[in-house]
Amino acid sequence: MQTAFNILGIPCCHAFSLYNHIRDCGMWIRAFDAKFAWKGEPFTRTEWDQLLAEYGAVTDVPALAFWEDLLAAYPEAKVVLMERDIERWYKSFDDAVVKPLWARLGNLIADYERGFVGPIRDVHRRWATDWMRVHSAEEMREVAKDRYREHYASVRRMVPQERLLEYRLGSGWEPLCAFLNKSVPNVEFPKVNETRSMHEKIAIITRRGLIKLLKRATLWLGLFILTLTLWKVLF
């Protein structure tokens, strides 16, 4: 859906957006602290305008954890709810989210590479612990379907009907464009394999994190060798 919004000229904030906006990770953590840990003031439209200044829509993590707050902050906003077959969704969720989020190698890199991989991991982990209320891959798998059902029920209960579109996969551009008052584009509705896209992104950030760690290790090794050499020469 992110790709569809972008085609319609509505820049969309998605989990992938963090990869090019590392500076935003700290503010997302502040939002999690305020809402779920009661640290600091809850975000108002002022803070959301600052954090989401580049976007006209949000989808996916981390915005998912704040959908009620955004609904209240932007009373003029519309909501597009796209429900999938829960079994197919669960398989995709397990492959694209659960396994990478709790992978040992990825978390090891994130623990030591704090300039890029670490902040991205931290935001996703806060979504898991705060919104999903889980602390392991096993817990996430156990509650995933219930949280899915709860979320969709909450959206249907809380969003006024005139602001809600229940979009069905395969419906094409017409219902979405009519709801958003947009002209139908002269291109096919995008079909993106999000699991594959997520794996590609994760591979990129993992490689980037490893390269940074190796550079840092090489630097420290070089300094150690230099220090040892000077010690032998001087003493």
Walk me through what this model shows.
The chain is mainly alpha-helical and 235 residues long. It is 61% helix and 5% strand. It contains 10 helices and 4 strands; from the N terminus they run αβααβαβααααβαα. The protein has a two-stranded parallel sheet with strand order 1-2. The protein has a two-stranded parallel ribbon with strand order 3-4. The longest helix is centred in the last third of the chain and has 41 residues, at 194-234. It is globular, with a radius of gyration of 21 Å. The mean pLDDT is 87.
Keywords:
235 residues; mainly alpha; two-stranded parallel ribbon; 10 helices; 61% helix; globular
Radius of gyration: 21 Å
The number of helices is 10
Instruction: State the share of residues found in helices, binned by percent.
Output: 55-70%
Structural class: mainly alpha
Q: Residue ranges: pLDDT <50 for 5 or more in a row? A: none
How much of the polypeptide forms β-strand, as a percent range? 5-15%
**The biggest beta sheet, please?**
2 strands, parallel
Number of strands: 4
Q: What string, H for helix and E for strand, traces the elements in order?
A: HEHHEHEHHHHEHH
Q: Span between N and C termini? A: 67 Å
Main β-sheet, spatial strand arrangement: 1-2
Shape: globular
